[in-house]
Amino acid sequence: MVSMVLGILLVLVALPLSAGAQTHGNLTLGSSLTADDRNSSWQSPSGEFAFGFRKMGRGAHLLAIWFEKIEDKTIVWSANGDTLAPEGSKIQLTTDGRLVLNDPGGRELWSPNPTVAGVAYAVLLDTGNFVLVSQNYVNLWETFNQPTDTILPTQQLDQGTKVIARYSEMNYSAGRFHFILQDGNLAFYATPTPLDVSDAYWVINTNGSGFQLIFNQSGQVYLTATNGAVLNLVTSDTVPTSAFYQRAILEYDGVFRQYVHPKTANSSSRWPRGWSVVSSPVPPNICTSIPLNIGTGACGFNSYCSLGDDQRPRCHCPPGYTPLDSTNEMNGCRQDFTPQSCDESRPETDQFTFNRLLHTNWPFSDYERSAAQTEDWCREACLVDCFCAVAIFSDEGTCWKKRIPLSNGVMDTSVGGKALIKVRIQNSTSKSTGDGQKKNKNSTLIIIGSVLLSSSVFVNLLLLLITCLIYRRFRSRDSKLLWAVQINQAAVTQTFTFQELQEATDGFKEELGRGAFGAVYKGVLRSQDANFVAVKVLATKTGEREKEFEREVSAISQTNHKNLVQLLGFCNEGQHRLLVYEFMSNGSLADFLFGSSRPSWYRRVEIACGVARGLSYLHDDCTRHIIHCDIKPQNILLDGSLTAKISDFGLAKLLMANQTRTTTGVRGTRGYLAPEWFRNMPISGKVDVYSFGILLLELICCRKNYEPEAESEAQIVLVDWVYDCYHEGSMLELVESDEEASSDIRRVRRFVMTALWCIQEDPALRPTMKKITQMLEGAVEVSVPPDPTSFLSSI
């Protein structure tokens, strides 16, 4: 009896120990974790590392290992980046000793490769290594032997082990770059299946004697020989692991960097609280390092790479080109104009011109060269050649012709000469048409003037009256013809009759929304039965409504970007002015953001970056730069995949390519208006920057910029509250009920700092939208912003 009681007591005492072991100790067979909102994990004994699920978006989870005790929970290894796990998926160490990730339906998503048998338990070590162990304490499988993009102190890579960069900052699927210890040398490649070592863009050569790549506890990464002798230092800085977390990563831009992070906030006054680079990047300049005559180079096709002030590569589209994927600048660019015709009967040489970029080249795209020539000769040779997309004129007088696709583009001071990029002249067709009509009109006027000079006074007066009528008729016809040609420059834009749009909307039956200039209705075009459209009906044809119509069509017909709503067509018939847009099935950002349920943090991040890219395109990449003038949640629409698209260009202001600012009356919506609207100051793209700053704060905090019913008086004005929280270091208060955002607090701080820069009183202090996009994406550091409240009190 006594032995039975003692046995029960021992069991009861052991129960909490067993439960605790599931989190911090050895994981017994049958242990499991489920992908849900609780972010449950298995932790290393010290709690410094965690293994479990990280939410990557609505209903999508990544099985990963991360630093647990720092704010941004940096991921160092992942299992299923190419196939994210849906809600309810489970990772389990089965009773027969298999580690397997299954979706809710039981389908296997991932398991260690090669398959291991005889597993007795698993454990996450304090080094960050997750290990499957046999009954005899032999490591059967470990994450240190199958890294993704990161290596950690004490990790050793053997021959043939590959480290693969992720696709982008937030996409953990396999990217383009990898390095591998191969034939005794450490080689970096930009192609998935290189033919031989000559395809490498960076090689650490040991003459074939390299045996292991080691990351030691002193913070050095180096190659060793079989006898353990150090052959080459990859990174040489030494940082004690006792005070700093460390990691070395092949980042998505193809550069290998080493980072450190203090283990405590006050561990050293020399280091900031976030991750800091402690070694020179490898390679130092990837833009100039990729020598291949095939492939895309550091950036995608038809783009070029330049090194930023922070020593990070930047990918750019040349003038006349636009990104293929606005979410990833490294995916290349495409022409945003119709290429030159090769039809000899219409050579189109008068419809193209050249934009010049200094120190820029696509070294492996040429198909013809001519020596001892002038720049004018080079331009003309490319102009008359329909295959020529770019001509490179070297300092020595050599002309190189390049064809599409352009590859391995680079801009660097080491590159001599200049690139002459052939682009279609904006509205070239309309200009040629207009010139012909102007000549005909002028000829008519000259003939009539001659008659006037040789006739009697009465006849002269009569002819003068007729001349005025003819001139007005020509002018009216000219404007109509030029207007039609200008609109039809957009490849997908078409004209509709009022009756067609009336039938498409079933008599304007289903209203989607209403604004100051008219209403928007849902419709279906007869030619596209499966696709809905949104038809915007402008009010009566008053002067202002006519300007609204002209501004909107003129602005949006010149654009082509993933984050701008697409104009499909228009109706300009009698008193009827209608615009036909692609249908955005998820409505406006205002409804999405301020509705009953909070959108996920990662979705809000994507929306913020998407709007920033769209505005950057409008400000910098259009032939006529466009200031939107009314950025607010109601004018950001969401398509079926929740991609954000800027809409409603009715207040837009178009600038010439050489124009940066203008003067105009107040436009926009109060609460999002920059102070210069009220101060009789010139208006520039910085008014959109200010509006975006307010929008960004609303996205961060999931609330409107002014809420008189807020919990406390300090929270009524969003900008005041955000700055107070930022200044007091209480950033978590802004997202305290948002678990996703709270676990990504480093990004929250970066977004808040970016927003505070956007809403500075002085427009000159506000960054450009291109710089803001880089700040949001983490490509550039965000410095401490000044206090913006001085300007709030002046409004």
Task: Please tell me about this protein's structure.
Helix content is 24%, strand content 26%. It is of the alpha+beta class. It has six domains: 18-146, Bulb-type lectin domain (Agglutinin, subunit A), CATH 2.90.10; 151-284, Agglutinin, subunit A (Orthogonal Prism); 321-424, Hepatocyte Growth Factor; 428-487; 491-583, 2-Layer Sandwich (Phosphorylase Kinase, domain 1), CATH 3.30.200.20; 587-795, Transferase(Phosphotransferase) domain 1 (Transferase(Phosphotransferase), domain 1, Orthogonal Bundle), CATH 1.10.510.10. The strands form 13 sheets. A six-stranded mixed beta sheet has the order 37-41-42-40-39-38, sandwiched between helices. Strands 3, 4, 5, 6 and 7 form a five-stranded antiparallel beta sheet that branches. Strand 20 (212-215) and strand 21 (221-224) form a beta hairpin. The chain is globular. The model is unreliable at 1-22, 427-460, 474-492, 655-667 and 790-795 (pLDDT under 50).
